[in-house]
Amino acid sequence: MKLDFLSFDFDKFASEMQNLKTAKGFDYLITIVGEDFGAEEGLGCVYILENTNTHERCSVKMLAKSQVCGDGMSSNGTGDTDGQMMSYIPTVSHIWRVAELLEREVYDFYGIVFLGHPDMRRLFLRTDFKGYPFRKDWKFDDSYTLEDDVEPDYGLEFYLDKDGNLQSKQNKLFTQDDYVINIGPQHPATHGVLRLQTVLDGETVKRIYPHFGYIHRGIEKMWEQMTYPQTLALTDRLNYLGAMQHRHALVGVIEEAMGVELTDRIKYIRTIMDELQRLDSHLLFTSCVAQDLGALTAFLYGMRDREHVLNCMEETTGGRLIQNYYRIGGLQDDIDPNFVKNVKDLVKYLRPMIQEYMDVFGDNVITHNRLENCGPMSLEDCISYAVTGPAGRASGWKNDVRKNHPYDLYDKVEWEQCTLDTCDSMGRYLVHINEMYQSLRIIEQLIDNIPEGDFYVKQKPIIKVPEGQWYYAVEGVAGEFGVYLDSRGDKSPYRMKMRPMGLSLVGAFDPMLRGQKIADLIATCAAIDVVIPDIDR
Amino acid sequence: MEIKPKIKSIPYNEWNDNESLEKIVDELHEGGVNVVTGTLDQLINWGRSNSLWSLTFATSCCGIEFMACGCSRYDFARFGFEVTRNSPRQADLIMCAGTITHKMAPALKRLYDQMAEPKYVVAVGGCAISGGPFKSSYHVVKGIEEIVPVDVFVPGCPPRPEAIMYGMMQLQRKVKVEKFFGGANHKQTREEAALGVSNEELTFREKLGDNRRNPIVVTDVPQEFVDEMKAAQTAAKAKEENA
Q1: Which of A467, A485, B153, B206 is spaced 20 to 30 Å from A288 by Cα?
Q2: Which of A:189-228 have CB within 8 Å of B?
Q3: ipTM of the complex as predicted
């Protein structure tokens, strides 16, 4: 989607954004892109929004204002930011709740503060990190320390006082009597290096503060120094279980910007590969839910069958986990001669096996008791917190990008969007199971009809993308995965940003789990399918 | 006494990097190996090498391949690696599978410090070895050897399960040529273990100004104390003489 930015007056920004949501129905905030627009325009943000009924999308561009922060008089803080030049934009976190984390991300990378946001802390980097790495004038520095980070127990809130001066005050994260435990960063149940700072009252969860960045690799910053073909290699290493989809979104946005027309053969193969990858990821997901709840047998069954899926992809792509298969203008190579037969065998084999997982684990009464009413979240909250993917569909939100914004062949094949209205972890598990059947269905329809043609549309040796901004989204394995591209006509991107699938999912842990038991945190975390390198990027 | 690490079904000459292992064996043979302790060593090392418990420290992609190693097709229980521990206190080795970022580095160091000797580190994948594809990033440690000593490197991005198992068997061979009684070939020196400062202490000292945890090292005896002792001795002597 080529982006045409709406723009608003700085003073009216908050009310106009509210208006976009209430009057025009743009109730789903897809992402906020922080950007250093250059010397003339300075820092700013791009907001990408969707109307969940009509699936219309729009984008808003907002430039930040700057002034010197506080004189220290009305600030009750220690004066961390007093006297510094700060850029600021009014917050939208009260309109779309997902903005709470997204704005912190922008603050972390660009140092833009959001007026009225209650908790302006860094999201990914250490609190003692110097500077804001994504600004164009940031001086590269990769020194590090082995000392522990001393984290503040407060978040800063910025506001304009009655004279129009920027001020900050501290909001305490927890009180003296709160019992706080850290789950992670090295914990087997968080599926990676996620840290959940959990405030407890006995066994009951009072509040969860997620901490990210333990696997933040700065991919988006690295991209700015790379040529377009070079950027491709890194996407596979985000959510390594959704390697194909991630790369699909990246090549998708570049191809759209360049206006590349793909052959049908490429579209067929990409669709099949995406669905194979989805099977791979969902198999691992259903296995890991079982393992996290203590059912080791179901785990081994799922992993056994996952190897068959990997075999199918490996023969063509050469990689087991990370395939590096798509490239700008097509595919790395044609499919293997045995591919069609292998995939057909796989489909035949897998269909009864999915029922077996249900017999072994999914239909078990213990599983039902454990997962039902665990981590509930209503439809309205799901949209406000941007809980996309199977987790959102379990609350009845029809958010599948493959249906709403069809790409490749998804509008040509017959398949159903799986939604449930249980709003809990059991529903999330079942949506994954149903989606595996749908993936098999899509593959079955396509595998016999792969047309002849080229697997690669030849591109120039040096790829340059025309000026402009684009956003392209695919349905990743755990939600919408999109890539925003701002090109200035160079051979490397000016700014590229991903919409990770997991960030908003983890942001939703807090409202899901308040008042629930701490043991439910593990079950909810297992059933929501987060992969941390995807969040941290 | 000749010590040679044997792994069933793979002949010695087919292994990679026999040279560094032979160097360790030569060091071990320096001054000779006592027959009794040598035999006991072999017995204990046989047991240790076949029950290597790893700390699950999977930060990214390589962790999934490590999981695949433990599952149906590859099943590394055949070699005795299947017990993974979530606590560093109970683990023999860190299986460092994935990128280590600047924010994670103190955690890795602390986990390593918390492990009991003898301990080993296996660096799995390009990121753990050198930063891999993320070498030019501002937030990635360029190889974990900057932080902890590494025993085995397993290259790949990510390495196949076969490669991970090969790496683990290399570690087995290394364990087999170790002198368990007396000096061991550990990379962490005795001084470092006794007086080494953990990152926790560094934080206390440099950030919070708390020096209570400084090691107390006595280098010389204060002159006052010597004088006092001398006075006491002469007094005691005088008392004896008087008696």
Answers
A1: B153
A2: 192-193, 213-219, 221-222, 225
A3: 0.84
